[in-house]
Design brief:
Number of helices: 3
Number of domains: 1
Strand content: 35-45%
CATH architecture: 2-Layer Sandwich
Radius of gyration: 16 Å
Strand order of the largest sheet: 1-2-3-5-4
Shape: elongated
Order of helices and strands: HHEEEHEE
CATH topology: STM4215-like
Number of strands: 5
């Protein structure tokens, strides 16, 4: 059994790659896990996973609240590209993605934040979309 944040990350990546709306804006190879500023733009980088175990449920199931940040990076063009990518991601993740071996009791995107890169030489737009889910699984 895979750890819940990794299962969520895998499910989200699969959903984003399968989305024609996202694919029109971000190449599949630029949608990945990581913790650094991307080399290739535009991109979506998943990081900052957190699992809070909530205990056990009936049928020997486990439950956890899981958080994952999706970092959207694009070169500045009035921030339109980055926000278009963020909107496409939000549309794709209106429903919980399929996560093998896991089910979702709750799934949502409770926060989206946008910021400009402070480097005046390169004008990046960076957005962070937080995904929150309550996941259930058994061994």
């Amino acid at each position: 059994m895979i750890e819940p944040t990794l299962a969520l990350q895998t499910a989200i990546r699969s959903a984003l790659i399968a989305s024609s709306e996202v694919a029109a804006l971000v190449p599949a190879a630029h949608i990945r896990a990581g913790s650094t500023r991307p080399d290739n733009l535009p991109s979506i980088i998943m990081s900052g996973g957190q699992t809070i175990f909530l205990g056990n449920a009936s049928g020997s199931q486990y439950i956890a609240r899981v958080f994952l940040d999706l970092h959207v990076w694009a070169l500045e063009d009035g921030s339109d590209t980055a926000k278009a990518i963020g909107f496409a991601v939000c549309n794709t993740l209106k429903e919980a993605p399929d996560a093998a071996g896991f089910s979702f009791d709750e799934f949502g995107l409770p926060a989206v934040r946008w910021m400009r890169d402070p480097d005046p030489e390169i004008s990046y737009t960076h957005g962070v979309l937080t995904v929150e889910a309550v996941m259930r699984w058994s061994f």
